[in-house]
Amino acid sequence: MLNSLPIMNIDDRHELAQAIVDTIREPLLVLDRDLRVVTANRSYYLTFGVNRQDVQGRPVYALGDGQWNILELRVLLESIAPQHAVMEAYEVEQEFSGLGRRTMLLNARKVFYEDNFHTTILLAIEDITERRARERGLDELMQQKDLFLQELQHRVANSLQIIASILLIKARTVRSEETRLHLQDAHRRVMSVAAMQRQLKASEPDATIDLDPYLSQLCETLAASMIGDGRPISLEVHAEGGTATRGQSVSIGLIVTELVINALKHAFPDDRRGGMVMVTYDLAEPNWRLTVSDNGIGRPEGQPDKVRPGLGTAIIEALAKQLDARVEVFMDPHGTTVSITHTAFVSRLSRRAGAMAAVEPDLIRFEDELRLVIAPSFRKTSLDPCYIKGYGRSSAGLGQAPRTD
């Protein structure tokens, strides 16, 4: 097949090479070993407004008004031939006659010949002025966006403080006890959102959030408003090694707020000593489990199976859906456990239903280790006397529907 190709003479090859060079859209120079111009393509002549006599045979650093006479560029070009090197993405910003100030991107490499008797260097020039201008424009927009977000965060923080203060004042002045409790609940939720906002404000927009200090500070805010020094109840957080994006952190923080407030309100009606609420975040990448447990009253014996779900239930389920997670509730007279589980973890309900054989061994071990971490009194617990639809379990079996307020 190769033998059937027509034999080209030297002139034909030269014309073919020149045609290929002229076809290239970006300006292109062909240099010899001494960096003198052998030829240039049409794009070079049109871009820089010069003719053949101004270019051919001249050193590259003498072209134009000396825009290419840059010491670093000259050293790079001179090293290409003897060292078989290449030059990639060398940027030059200069004033060019007829063009104004332009930014050029240079790429160069040696052409290898079989006889190795002579040397040719190809130097391609790309005008990236408009690209750099767009990049600078985007950078300026990003800076403006960051300033806007900082101002917005500042205003949100002030607004949350004002709202919290108004709610607290109203809670102290109203006569209705039911209204007072609702206002106090609203105040706690606003304060927890303010705590989340403060922590997220201190982080970079694209940064991951360390969940241990994030949840610890959030729970400290809740404990200060709901436990104080008068109730013998402790609130603990265990989330070492857990991280999340800013968006995930908001959802996780709101879930923890709802569940902790619910537990502190309903799990310990008699404020008995030894009361504990535990927030745990366990990670087995890419899977995780968020658990809020208490050793309160759980579901007392004889509690009716059907209780209407509340607003808190809808909030938790919606937030869990955003996290691509499922909600599971376990309860008995010894307390309550609510788990928000992402992807591959297998629930205890599924395992007791006969799905043990389908569970991966490492996940089974993780479940066993997780059970050891949680106090024995937290083993089979749920949320409060209210029930999340579809996930509850009573002594008579599945179907109890715990909810949050």
Short description:
This protein has ten helices and 14 strands. It is α+β, with helices and mostly antiparallel strands and 405 residues long.
SSE blueprint and pairings:
Layout: H1 10-23, E1 28-31, E2 37-40, H2 42-48, H3 71-83, E3 86-96, E4 100-111, E5 120-127, H4 129-173, H5 177-201, E6 209-210, H6 211-226, E7 233-238, E8 243-244, H7 246-266, E9 275-284, E10 287-294, H8 311-322, E11 325-332, E12 335-342, H9 348-355, H10 361-373, E13 393-394, E14 397-398
Parallel strand pairs: 7-9
Antiparallel strand pairs: 1-2, 1-5, 3-4, 4-5, 6-8, 9-10, 10-12, 11-12, 13-14
Helix pairs in contact: 4-5, 5-6, 5-7, 6-7, 7-8
Name given to the CATH homologous superfamily of the largest domain: Histidine kinase-like ATPase, C-terminal domain
By secondary-structure content and strand pairing, the structural class works out as alpha+beta
Number of helices: 10
Instruction: List how many beta strands DSSP finds.
Output: 14
Gross CATH architecture of the largest domain? 2-Layer Sandwich
At CATH level 3, the topology of the largest domain is: Heat Shock Protein 90
Return Rg in Å.
36 Å
- Name the beta content range: 15-25%
**Termini separation:** 83 Å
Shape: elongated
Spans with pLDDT under 50 lasting ≥5 residues? 345-405
What is the average per-residue confidence, as pLDDT, rounded to a whole number? 77
Helical fraction equals 40-55%
Question: Could you state the order of secondary-structure elements as H and E?
Answer: HEEHHEEEHHEHEEHEEHEEHHEE
**How would you write the strand order of the largest sheet?**
2-1-5-4-3
